[in-house]
Structure formats: C-alpha cells, structure tokens
Amino acid sequence: MASREGDRWSEIVASGGVRQPHISVVYGRRRVEESTGRRTTDMRGSFGGEQRPSFAPSKRTSWNRSLSIRGRESIFVAPGANLQPQKNCRALKQPPKPCNRVKKNVGGPPDFRKEKAYFAEVDACDLMEESPSPKNFGTWTRGMDIDHDLPAILERWQISKLAMPVSSKALFDIIETPVIPSVLSNCSTSNNLFSNSCRTPEKDRGSGGHTMGAIPLGFSDIEGTNITASLSKLNIKGGPVETSIPWNGEALTAFDQILMVCKQSAPVTLAEVFSAYCELGSIKKLGEGTYGEAYRAGRTVCKVVPFDGDLLVNGETQKRSEEILGEVLLSLTLNNLRSNRVGNEQKDSCDGFIETRDFRVCQGPYDPSLISAWEDFDAKRGSENDHPKDFTREQCYIVFVLADGGTDLESYALVDYNEAHSLLVQVTASLAVAESACEFEHRDLHWGNILLTQDDTPERNNTMSFILGGKRMHARTFGLTVSIIDFTLSRINTANLFCLVEIKNAAAGISITNTWSPNGMGNLLKFNVARTAILFLDLSADPALFQGKKGDKQAETYRRMKEITKEHWEGSYPKTNVVWLIYLVDMVLQKMKPLAPGNKVERELRSFKKRLASYESAGDCLADPFFADVLLTEDERLSFSNGPSVGDVGDV
Ligand SMILES: Nc1ncnc2c1ncn2[C@@H]1O[C@H](COP(=O)(O)OP(=O)(O)OP(=O)(O)O)[C@@H](O)[C@H]1O
C-alpha cells in the first residue's frame, strides 16, 4: 500500500501545493467602537440519549465575536446564469446586465431602473406563486430553483462602492492587488487552466516599495475590450498604484442589492418565508450563534440574522446590509464548489460546505411560531441569546435557507474511530479543495461550525467524492456526512473562480480571444481584474478574540492564527486551516477519550496531530499517511464499491 499511496500523495501534494504566505489587500475595513464582546470558554459535554451517547451541551459554547471586527467587503464571481425568471413568469424579460453596460456609464450614474422594474415584476409573480397556505407548502419549489448571476451581483456591488460618498470612504475603500502577469499567463486556454496559479501576488512587506493601491475597478465587460487599459493601470512591475475614480452618480444601496439577490422588491414577513417550508407550528430551533438563530423548517434549516436595526442583539450591534451582502456572496461562492453546480472541467469541487439554497429578506416582529420554538429551545437547552420578543415592526432580517447539516460536533458523540477518521478526512479534503480553488481559509472552525449527520444504518462502503487539482478522489465516510458552516471570519480569493467563468463562457460558445500579451508572455485569457478580489475580516480589530483563557484549545487556535498571519489578515496563510485541523484532532481526542482511553487509536491521533504541526496547508495535511486507508482513487473506489463490504480501518 505504501508505494501506491506514495504516488497518489505526490499527486495531491503537487496539485494542492505548499505555498508561501503571500499578501494582497483588497479593502479597508470599517472600524467601530469596541463592543462588549461576550465570550465563553465553557466546553462541557456529557453522554446521554438512547441510541448513541450525546454530548448535548446546556449552553452554546461557540466563540462569540465582537461586531467591532465586522466590515467585510466581498467581490467574487462564479459561473452564474442570467437572472432567471420564475418558471411560470414567461412574460418577464431579462434585466439588463450592469456588468455589460457600466463602461459606457463611466462618469455618470448607473441606471438600475430597468432592473428594479424587472425585480418588481418578479416579486409580483413570486407573491402569486410563493404565498402558499401552510397546507400547500410542499408545492413551493422556489429555493431549489434559484440560480444567481454572480457577475451581475458583483458589478452592482462594485458600482455601489465607487458611488459611495466621501464620508463613507473609510469603510468602502477598495484596495486591491491585482493578479500579476506571470500569474495571468498561467490562466491560459491550455489544459493548465485551473492550475493553482491565479493567486494573489506576494507583497514585500519589508521593502516598503509596494504600497497598497486602490485599483480602479475597470468594469471591463466580458469581451474585455478595456482589459489592456485596466491592466496597465495596475503598474504591475512597480506594484499597484493608487488611483481613484470619481463617481458622482447614485448606486443601489447594499440593502437594494440584497433584495435583488433575493429577487424581492420588498421584504416579506418571517411567517411568509417559513410557511413555504413547513407548518409554522412544526418549527424547531436547532442552534444559535452570536448573530444567527437556526431553525428547522421542514427539510431545510433557516438561519435568521437580524440586521440594520438599532437594537443591540445579544449585546452586539446588528450587522449592516453591507456585511450581510458580503456573507451572501461568500455563501454563493462556496456553493459554486458543489459537485452539482459545476461542469466536468472544474478543477476543484466538493460538497463539504453547507449548501445555501436561498436567501430571503424579512421585516417585522419575530413571528409567534419562532418565539415559541425559541422558548422551547431555551427551556430544554438554555439559550445564551436575548429573547427575540423585542424586535419591532421595522426590524429587518436575512434568512439563509440552508440544507440541514445535522448536529454540530460539539453536541455529537463520535462512536468509534471510523467516525473520527471520516470526520477528519472530510473536513481536511473540503478545506484542501477550497484552498486550491480560492485560497479559502475558514479561520473559525470550532466544533459548533462542523455539522454531522449519520445514516441510520451506516453503509460501510459509503464514499464521498471531491476533485482536488483536477483529480477526482474519494473518501470513505462510514455513513457520516460532514458540513462546514459559518464563514463569517473566512478569507477567500476569487481569482480562480474568474478563470472558471471565462472558460465556461468559452465552452458555451462565447468567443474568447487573446487580446493581451504583455512582455511576450504568451496568450492570455481576457481576465476581468475588476472582479478579482479578496474577502477577509481584519481580526486585529477585535483584540478580545485573542484573549481567551490560556490553555483553552479554541482560544489558543485564534492566537496561533495571529502568530501565523502576523496580523496581516488580508494575506493568504493556508496554515490557518492547519491549526484548526490540529484543534479538531484535539476535540476528537476529547470526545474519543471516554471510549478509547490510552489505546492505539489515541496514539494514532496524537502522532497525526504531531505531524500536522509541520504542514503548511490543508492540502499538505491530506497527504498525511493518517488518511491513507480512507482515501481512494477512482479505480480503488470502483473495486471498493463493487467488492464485498470492507472492514473497518481501526475500530476501537
Ligand atoms: N445548516 C444547518 N443545519 C443544522 N444546524 C445548523 C445549520 N446552520 C446552523 N446550525 C446551527 O445553528 C448554530 C449557529 O449557526 P452559525 O454558527 O451559522 O451562527 P452564527 O450566528 O453565524 O454563529 P457565530 O456566533 O459562530 O458567528 C450552529 O452551531 C448549529 O448548531
């Protein structure tokens, strides 16, 4: 097995790659006054329940974060389809795409009247279609049908940034380091298209010669006619140059943009959204975070996040529309890694991040059905959050309609080594894929943010698939399915996703010509640098995050991230994923201990943990021999699933 594995691991390592940390700054962050920042380090767990032991905690133990750190900006793109009207709304016309119009509008305000009119029409249609009585909720299919035109969403977002008045500049400065030519040259139409090359360039911190620059977002259209000009403005050799674009016009507010993403012209009530998925009386609260309350509604989970209001929620300032928009865009980006969203040409794909099925903007007081579910949860498990009764008629919420990811790891009892193995390989593979696709770092992967479901009768031959660096791989699951949630602190680079969009357009018959070939570097795809950017959150604005109890694994992990990034939170440091994997092994050890005190399993986990410390990325971690028995190549999987049920890899 060793030599065969050796080959595979060298492939994984080659495709995942060990990268040096590099930096790229995209935007300035809003800094607000310090908040109260409630935190807890209570990590209790206890066995209970009937069929499997339960670690159900009496309190949420996630690491609460201060809203003082908020202020994410988001730019990204994906192979989005046009804004599709609802099935029965044939008369609707496509809205004009701002991304293809903006250039002509430079110097003047973008005109979104047609789009607004379109969405008003969509919404009118939605109202007819989407207000079923609770009895008919099964016929309402909106969520699964939604496709989002991410490039268009992004263009609107960018325009709004440029159109912001000077007073908001601190919040909305867009500081962007471009994809550099050598990188671009790898984004060619060759087979090497999806190589790990569309990366943020390194920033020479020491020299001081490379100041961060505010790049004018060129809004080149997909034909890229302005691409040369845009790229030349980036002053590639000497580093980015600060420029600014005067923009006097109006633009859509972030709130309007969220409505457009949701295909709504106005907020609806919480009851309207929930009744589309279930009988209101059947709603159950599943969990809570500092900002969100998660409720089961039929077969979906609706996470309700209040925003834009003045009321302090759980001791914190509510999120602002801009931040919600960023989270919406980030969720959509991760959705695009899903196997059902991409074509065969996708270089990286996995299903390990929770599927976001829809978003809805709501307004009004909390619905009595939700209050009752909230109180029920509080009575049974004890809530750390404020009672939602104080929300007024003006209060707005975003509802993230998510797939049901199951139970969070904190409350889940791992029953044997196979489950632990499955958990670790799935999380590691997902991080490795997202790292490769978009320099993704989760940065907050505590055990409340990993959800698990187990088949009632786990099929020993179950596997999950993922594609890493163009190579399809499989992991044995032992019936366990893992979903990663909560991307509030995550960092992402959209560059490779843009490559993908361009190629998909090419595949769809839209011509891509080679228009730019600087320094004889060869043919390049037209690359819309305007849409290439990085989302991150500057955690240095939240010192309390790093002041958790000494020795507490979660608190220590935030501090490790701080050491790794040296507080350059904008940079790419895939090692942050590694430290969360180390934390995860600690949590697994904690959970396994009562089952396997001091035995071989514990020793294996400990030596795996030791090796993890030497890795630089989740991609590296995936190549560790610890996963050799649970990772399968395509051929191995075929013989595996055709053969007799394979034994466990190491039962306790
Ligand atoms: N898709 C889902 N399926 C099942 N449970 C979920 C889902 N999403 C969220 N939950 C539950 O709700 C809890 C809170 O969700 P989440 O962490 O996303 O909220 P948050 O407010 O963003 O949290 P944080 O304070 O960590 O930022 C989770 O720990 C989990 O128990």
Automatic annotation (TrEMBL):
Residues 29-63 are annotated as: Disordered. SMART domains: DUF3635, S_TKc. GO terms for molecular function: ATP binding; histone H3T3 kinase activity. GO terms for biological process: intracellular signal transduction; mitotic cell cycle. Residues 30-42 have a biased composition (Basic and acidic residues). It is an enzyme of class 2 (transferase). Residues 280-632 form the Protein kinase domain. One of its GO terms (cellular component) is nucleus. It comes from the Eukaryota. Its EC number is 2.7.11.1. Gene3D superfamilies: Phosphorylase Kinase, domain 1, Transferase(Phosphotransferase) domain 1. InterPro entries: GSG2_C, Kinase-like_dom_sf, Prot_kinase_dom. Keywords: ATP-binding, Kinase, Nucleotide-binding, Serine/threonine-protein kinase, Transferase. It catalyses: L-threonyl-[protein] + ATP = O-phospho-L-threonyl-[protein] + ADP + H(+); L-seryl-[protein] + ATP = O-phospho-L-seryl-[protein] + ADP + H(+). This is non-specific serine/threonine protein kinase. It comes from Paspalum notatum var. saurae.
